[in-house]
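Backbone shape codes:
===
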Amino acid sequence: MGNGLSSDKHGFLPCLPSFQALHIVILGLDCAGKTTVLYRLRFNEPSATFHFWDVGGQEKLRPLWRSYTRCADGLVFVVDSVDGERMEEAKTELHKITRLAENQGVPVLVVANKQDLRDALGLAEMERLLALRELGAGTPWHLQPACAIIGEGLREGVDKLHAMIAKRRKALRQQKKKTR
């Protein structure tokens, strides 16, 4: 629970200045692949400074998620694409964490992990089962197919998350200027 990782190597996200640190929290049910995603991101050497928190997904640990997501720039929610029986539980937890007042508008990257396996649900089905369109217009999200073991899809997902974070920051700056 609460494995943290900071990285400032070169090669993963060349579009992000290396002086900019982002607070990203990796969440998801137990056995979804959160730690594998974390390690794959680390070994692919991200260029930006990320502060990743891989928070345990066991039911008794989920109330602690709120503590880690406070002031987060983005959330990565990892879902096991093969575990259709727990999709409703994943949906409940995803919606619970994104509806917290302090997480309103925080971009969410939903990693559809284990897409390499034969019984993996398709993206359209996962989007429907997770009710991603019900997250609300104020919560930007992206559903990314991935295989965390080999890192497939993670770079594209993190690039999309970065773009959503940058867009949100720009909108917040513009809003701040208008209120002056």
User: Anything to note?
Assistant: The longest strand covers residues 21-27. The radius of gyration is 16 Å.
